[in-house]
Each structure stands twice: as C-alpha cells, then as structure tokens.
Amino acid sequence: MFSSSLRQRSEWSPALALFSQSPSKWRETNLLRHDLEFTVQYSASSSPTYRMVLISAKQVGTDDATRRIEQLPKDGTDKKAVVLLMQGHDAMSSFMRLQIHAGQLIGHLDALRRPSTTGMNGLAQIDRHAVQKDLLRHCVSGTPLSVQQVDVLLGSVRHLRELANMVQTREGQETICRLLGDADGRSLIEHFTNGPKFT
C-alpha cells in the first residue's frame, strides 16, 4: 500500500504512476504514520510487515518529518525504514526525478516485497552485492564507471566503507587511480571528498 498523502508532495508525484503500473499491485490508501506498507510472505510462519516514511530534502528538519520519523518506532513492528529522496542542490533534484522516472525506486521496493525462495541470508547477500555494485558505478563525478571497473574495485575492497577510507590517504588514492585509470580514479576520489557533480 502507498499513502494518498504522497499526492500532496509534488516531488513524489512521478512515483504514483509507477505504483499503478507495477506488477506488484500497489494499493492507494490513507496511511497516517507512514507512506508505504507491505507484507512479505517468507514462510507459513513468517510474514513481516514493512513500513516506510518517504522524506525529500526539502522536508528534512521540518516538524512534520520529525514527527513522522519519531512515530515510526511506535507502530508495533520492527521492520521499518526512512527513505530519503536524495538531498542537494538543483542538479541533485534533477537526479532525484531521474531516479523516480527510471523506475528504480519502485523496482527496489518490488524486489523487497518478493518472498524468498532461496533463504533470507542468501537473498540478502545477493541483493546487497547487486545494490553495492550499482551504487558504486555512480560514485563518480561525471560518467558512471563500467561494470568491469566496479568488479575490479570490489575485488580489492570488501565494502564501500573501506573504499571511502582509501580516499582519505595518498596510498589509497594512488591504488584507486591504478585500478581505474587516472581520470576515473580522480573522478571517484572527487565524488567521495566533495560530493556529486552533474554535468
């Protein structure tokens, strides 16, 4: 289910059409404390309900957003999340709209709703690795890294935190440039140190 209140928040309006087109059959309803709710049937005895609050950059720090985030732990379930529509300046806002239009948000939510057939741990590992790879492709200022470059990077680090730590040292930066080539290495380093830039 998704909350009708999303219709009053223009930054989320592109997602509404995607909800209606989704094969997972998202239903619109009045949700008072959160924006998304769905149940995942993992087994006959395990079907947790997930609840999410959707927040945009302009809502961060407002009384309404603070209240909704504070109420989230009180809803009686341990499966909850806050989804932040990426914050930043005008270029970042364009990137947010692009993400929604491309259907990535709904696709990730639909993937989360699907029941596990291979066991939760295996699925979580696969999804975490796929998301990490996709995220890393865009951790550059400019053109995304190739899948091959991401594979090379992930072959030398265990997770993105380790890569972020490498950026803080000269040796780490030299290693990144050696693995990716100087231009792409510098682009990744700039992204981690100065934030994203869009051209």
TrEMBL record:
GO molecular function, one term: carboxypeptidase activity
UniProt keyword annotation of Hydrolase present: yes
Keywords noted in UniProt: Carboxypeptidase, Hydrolase, Protease
Name of the molecule in the record: Zinc carboxypeptidase A 1
